[in-house]
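Thread title: Can someone regenerate the structure for this chain?

I was given the following input by a collaborator and told the matching structure tokens would be attached. They weren't. Posting the sequence so someone can regenerate them.
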Amino acid sequence: MKVLLINETCGIGSHGRICKEIADTYKADGHKVVIAFGRNGKIAQDCEKYAFRIGNDVDVYIHALYTRILDRHGFGSKNATKRFIKWAENYNPDVIWLHNIHGYYINIELLFGWIKHHPEKEIRWTLHDCWAFTGHCGHFLVSDCKKWKKGCYECPEKHQYPKSLFLDNSQQNYKRKRVLFGNIEKMNLITPSEWLRDQVKQSFLQEYPIEVMRNKIDTKTFKFTESDLRDKLDIRNKYVILGVASKWTCRKGVNDFFKLATLLDHRFKIIMVGLTQSQMKRSPKEIIGIQHTEDAKQLAQFYSMADVFINLTYEENYPTVNLEAEACGTPVITYDTGGCKETLMRKESKVVETGKLSEIIRLLENKYSENNEIRRGTTLE
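Best answer:
Regenerated them for you:
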């Protein structure tokens, strides 16, 4: 059997790693697998055997510009998509498994035209966010927008990814998506969380079977890992709070972390992995900033070294960082955003009302009071 996975990245980032794990499973069962991707020419070293790139960096930049000016995300990259479809016709997959089809690299009109031209093929689509059933945004929790249930217009998320600087074409995008994504005979939808499944059931995609398939992580890598990070960072006697993001934004909680750092005393130390140089320069002195890394083994060391992992996100579906932290033996405190609470398995992990930093501080203070010595393996109250 031939399998074709389509995603924004190949082996890079959480979604890229998920695709790689799916590919590995198919390959182990004797099937032929290709991951077609469009963003970031960098490929994970152990993913090269699967990789086929759709277009190039220039195609991505042009599609991004098209989006910024016209708010037509997903409708650029025509030439790149035509070349890809020509290749895909020759490859002739039995299964087409879609993941992130947004990200400035593929034309959804051409893609779904090709899919509908082959009703015999099995189509799976894992939704990692809400973009498939909105007229613009990938997430709508911050703006508390519910227009997507009936038809988008006057988008409150226009200036968020995929950002439009001028026009608002959310209404037309919504109508076009509804037609393009509808009436596909053998398509099944997959969501990593029950929360996202419930959103899909209220959208125009409700016609399809929907399965919840939890994201998995590589537990051979993400496990308790000894390191000398506490010595290197000179934090041997601190209660270490860790945050990790591929890209820190306000919606990922960067400002809440900065505020938290100023509210805690000298007993605590916050480490944030994934900060840019400019963010590190403006972060409070109480924070140790680490730049983004794709080194999973290094991440496992940070997770294992921390006393607690905190996720202060305002937009989320099913965060793998929570899974990774717990797999390394570290309890998690997470905002109750999207499907965040569904990721928690350890009884020591806690869910806090989104934005309620006072409750985060209370949990940390209680824990420190119970444990005067900072040591591995502690739990949260």
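The CA atoms of residues 5 and 55 lie 16 Å apart.
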